[in-house]
Amino acid sequence: MKQNTTIFDLSKILNLSTSTISRALKDHPDIAAETKKRVRELAAKLDYEPNLSAAGLRTNNTKELAIIVPTLSGFFYDSVISSIEGEARKHGYSLMILVSSDDVAIEIENLKICKQRHVAGVLVCLSLHTKDLLPFIKLQELEIPIIFFDKVPNSDIFPRVSFNDERAASLAANALIKKKKKNILSLFGNIDLSITQRRLTSYSATFNNHFLTENDKNYLFIEHASSSTEAAEIVCKYFGGENKPDAIFCMTDELLIGTMKAVQVLKLSIPDSVGLIAISNGLFPKFYHPEVTYVETSGHSLGQLAFSRMLNYLQGNKENSEISAEASLMEGGSL
Questions:
Q1: Are 77 and 71 in contact (CB under 8 A)?
Q2: Alpha-carbon gap, residue 163 to 281, rounded angstroms
Q3: Class of domain 165-298
Q4: Of the chain's two ends, which shows fewer C-beta atoms within 10 Å, N or C?
Q5: Does 165-298 match 63-162+300-325 at the fold level?
Q6: How far is CA 283 from the centre of its chain?
Q7: In the chain, pLDDT over 90 holds for what percent of residues?
């Protein structure tokens, strides 16, 4: 196997010290223009590339960031990763992608990899079952900053970036109220997650604040599902009963996909048989006809906000607060 050209190879060929070679490549003012020209020409001819990992170990700045996500499925995280990678590249950082598969043990192993590679910082979306934050605290104690995004801990010892989950859920509830929906099957994710708790609390409160008498009341059938398969099963169960919902709310794209599978199996007509609204990244609602009305929570916007938070932290702004990306209602034809 052909070995990569090193700074020592350039030094030997040009009969210059490695420090002179290094400074010439960095356009240091102490190095003569002719020397810089000779060094650059040879570096280009031999396809020399600096060893960024070694340089990072010397300077304690590897210019490599890590992102840990529960999955690489197309529901949401692909757009977050794409956004962060693009922003990182603009600022001279590379991005290492790690997947926890919603497994706490794998998540901890990923943190060990981040430590071993001396990454500049870690962006983390918590796994479904993470409760103990000690592994993250230990990594942060090594001065490796951690920015949590999307699924974030209920802790003010870390910087966090999330959507305005309360507003997103309230927008969806108000859209259902506006359409005078009464029997609403409301599908939420894992109840242990802060994102689920926030959305459920705001969603329920919005309905409670709108009805004046028992006759005006909206009946909410609250169910929790951890996958599209579970969502499909729940929808089929409800439409197999006597009191069928007149609308379905889905907290995520994954639950929306399961719901639409059930709708197709049951041969329900949208919006005639049942209305539908979701909180979504915005991609999947456009796959259906009519297009699904949704509250947009853009993964691209969240990724930009998360990277901006990381960059600010690396530049010395170490405030441990939570900031939110906004949500907006996108009208389709499903309500």
A1: yes
A2: 11
A3: alpha beta
A4: N
A5: yes
A6: 15
A7: 64
| Burial label, 44 (beta-carbon count in 10 A; 0-12, 13-18, 19+) | exposed
Cα distances (angstroms) measured from residue 172 to each of 192, 206, 254, 256 = 21, 9, 17, 14
Q: 216: pLDDT confidence band, cut at 50, 70 and 90?
A: low
Whether the per-residue pLDDT at 57 is higher than 60: the answer is no
Question: Does domain 63-162+300-325 correspond to CATH entry 3.30.559.10?
Answer: no
DSSP percent split of the chain into helix, strand, coil, nearest 5? 45, 15, 40
Q: Where are the domains of the chain?
A: 7-50, 63-162+300-325, 165-298
Integer angstrom CA distances of residue 47 from 3, 7, 24, 40, 328:
11, 11, 16, 10, 49
Residues 247-286 pLDDT 10s:
999 999 999 999 999 999 999 999 999 999 999 999 899 9
Asked if residue 123 lies in contact with residue 147, where contact means CB atoms within 8 angstroms, the answer is: yes
Per-residue pLDDT tens digits for 173-214 = 999 999 999 899 999 999 988 889 999 999 999 998 886 555
Per DSSP, the three-state class of 152 is coil
**Dist. CA 234–CA 11, nearest whole Å:** 69
DSSP notation for 272-326: TT-EEEEEE-SSGGGGSSSPPEEEE--HHHHHHHHHHHHHHHHTT-----EEEE-
Residues 38 and 33: their CA atoms lie apart, in Å, by 9
